[in-house]
């Protein structure tokens, strides 16, 4: 089992704060587009920024990361302040989608790497990466009362799964962590970026396909 302190490196710290900031921005901007109060905007920023990491830490029996680190909540609130004082048109277009995609893959890598250092087996560790990357956005969408990304066929969870899997594979192969984390984040973000640009999506389920007989 790797020592938990092994994860506390500058690269992972940067990935952690980057993921928090980008996810917090998506939450704050969603509240802004809904013309909510600053309190609601700050809440959305916080719950989106820390939601996935909180669930991960509870599942792997680790201290909840943002409770012990004063910077995390401060970054979420600071992001909400930025969103409050900037017009939403600044963030129009695909910027929000790409920001969310970068946060998704950076967080997936962080979650998988942290799970590995806590002795979680490879497959569950990859799942922890997916949870870290996706759950904050899911909570954001559910609280906002809009269809969650998980209910659409976009390559979203798939991008998180790619990043988390590469991270786990690289760490199992004892490759340099900086290379592993960089490649994993880049690969997932490229997949998510291409999916956004070209509207790539997974095929949806159809009755009668994949060997399942029609009910007719």
Automatic annotation (TrEMBL):
Its main location: membrane. Residues 14-86, 98-169 form the Glycine transporter domain. It is a multi-pass membrane protein. It comes from the Bacteria. Keywords: Cell membrane, Membrane, Transmembrane, Transmembrane helix. It is found in: Cell membrane. InterPro entries: Gly_transporter. The keyword Cell inner membrane does not apply. This is Trimeric intracellular cation channel family protein. It comes from Pontixanthobacter rizhaonensis.
